[in-house]
Design brief:
four-stranded antiparallel beta sheet; four-stranded mixed beta sheet; alpha+beta; 4 helices; 163 residues
């Protein structure tokens, strides 16, 4: 773990050209768990595998200023997790949020499958929020719990339920 913080400090030093930039280092680690969504009863091994937290390498996230996702929001940076599963950034004191690619896009709703009011609330709520104070900010850990197609939030009807 100490090795990670040494590498992180070195990365900040190099990225700022050796000059300390204003702000406080924020370290974010986003993982994901994916439930078993098949029809037949899963084996114990399959259940354990679905409960493991995996780094969200391929996903794109957006760091935004403020605690609400809305049109006209200020995007600080688009990012992905690094090879160690972290994202690091120096930020001024304030309120920040992280949204995913879906919430970054303009809101479109298929009202035949989804509850419109529910989707609007879901879209406006960031994945997670955090505050950077003058004393800095700890490492922020967040896990995304994926859904199966039959239990997605805001769905009008249940379909494709495995038997």
């Amino acid at each position: 773990m100490i090795n990670f913080y040494v590498r992180l400090s070195l990365a900040f030093f190099i990225s700022t050209g050796g000059i300390e930039s204003p702000g406080y280092p924020v370290i974010i680690k986003i993982t994901r768990t994916e439930p078993y969504c098949g029809g037949a009863a899963p084996s114990d091994e399959m259940v354990k595998e679905s409960q493991k937290k995996k780094i969200a390498f391929s996903e794109i996230f957006y760091l935004i200023q403020g605690s609400e996702n809305k049109e006209g929001r200020r995007v600080i940076q688009k990012f992905r997790m690094d090879s160690s599963g972290y994202y690091c950034k120096k930020l001024a004191p304030g309120k920040y949020s992280v949204i995913n690619e879906y919430s970054f896009q303009k809101l479109t709703i298929d009202s035949s499958h989804y509850n419109v009011d529910c989707i609007k609330k879901l879209w406006a709520a960031p994945m997670f929020r955090f505050t950077v104070s003058k004393s800095g900010c700890d490492t922020i850990l967040f896990n995304i719990n994926k859904y199966c197609s039959y239990n997605e939030p805001c769905k009008n009807r249940l379909d494709n339920i495995p038997m």
